[in-house]
Amino acid sequence: MKVTNYLPLIAKNGFRNRRRSLLTILSIAASLCLLGLLLTIYHAFFFTDATPDQALRLVTRNRISLVNPLPMSYQQQIKQVPGVKEAMIMQWFQGVYKDSRDPANFFARFGVEAEKFGVVYPENKLPESEMQAFINDRTGCIVGRKTATHHNLKPGDRVTIVGDIFPITLELTVRGVYDGTIDNESLFFHYKYMNESLATTAGFRDVVGTYFIRIERAEDANAISKAIDDKFRNSPAQTKTETEQAFGTSFLAFLGNVKLMLLSICAAVTFTILLVSGNTMAMAVRERVREVGLLKTLGFTSGIVLWLMVGEAVVISLIGGVIGLALTGGLLLLLHQLPSAMTFGVFSQATVPPSVAIICLLVAAMIGLISSIIPALGASRRPITEALKFTD
Asked: Rounded to an integer, what distance in angstroms lies between the CA atom of residue 17 and that of residue 108?
């Protein structure tokens, strides 16, 4: 008989003790949900390809750290580097909107050069009339669709941002709502408005945290980055230029060795569920030793008996894996609602990639196989007379 002919028997025997099978499936599902989430995060951080627009953007900051500013005079020198299409000031403002204790009020606020914004960020779409209104209004701002919807903001509404890093309060008017592919929730206002408001504050005027650069060709990114940094190599404020994707990933360094942490947790989760499943499968096999004797009496070979027991464990584990992946997808949908500034943007559009789904299902199958193979081998090799006499 073909091996597939035993699948109905495997499915039936796998759920003969429904309570234990259900609890085993739920425990595997919970563990695989966590494993799938961690692997999705890992994939999003280190294996997600840059979008075409991201690949055409570079970020220049102070070589020492983001806390150290760059002179405004660097902008014209950067624009003179061959291959650079545009260079725009982009200053992180932070500040407090309404109540800082509510995470929903935490979204990115940047001072930019409005007239250059469309060139550097062409994927952030808004009507031309709204873009012109933003450019023409010194106190105007534009807001991502997600933030605008959450806070019920529309063109003409007033927004007040109380500075915490910078000792000023920005009184802004919403002039447009943009739809972005990567970022859909930031607020952008005029850098000039912020800079002029800091005119009497020593140490804060003419501060430039980063220059966001649009280049002509993505394949020239490394050469242009090196050319920009070489230009300021002997300056008091040296620069570090990298792709936008690399710039975003660099924030992970504040958390330590993220790769090692994620992989260590994944290994611990897999090992723990393997121990739990191994104990459960051993109990299930021990209860069925006499049944093994009966199967052999009916003509089932030791190989078929081994296949039946291992197959039951693998089927139960795979069911738990599928449920776990479904839970991971649902959890990611909930995490999409978190402000991307709080999660490095990793949850804003993250979904379970096919590679992660395959890995999780393979891990589930491996758990079923490893946890059952030793007790199943012992049971299948028992002589018929010994199996029939077994009592527990």
From this structure: 53
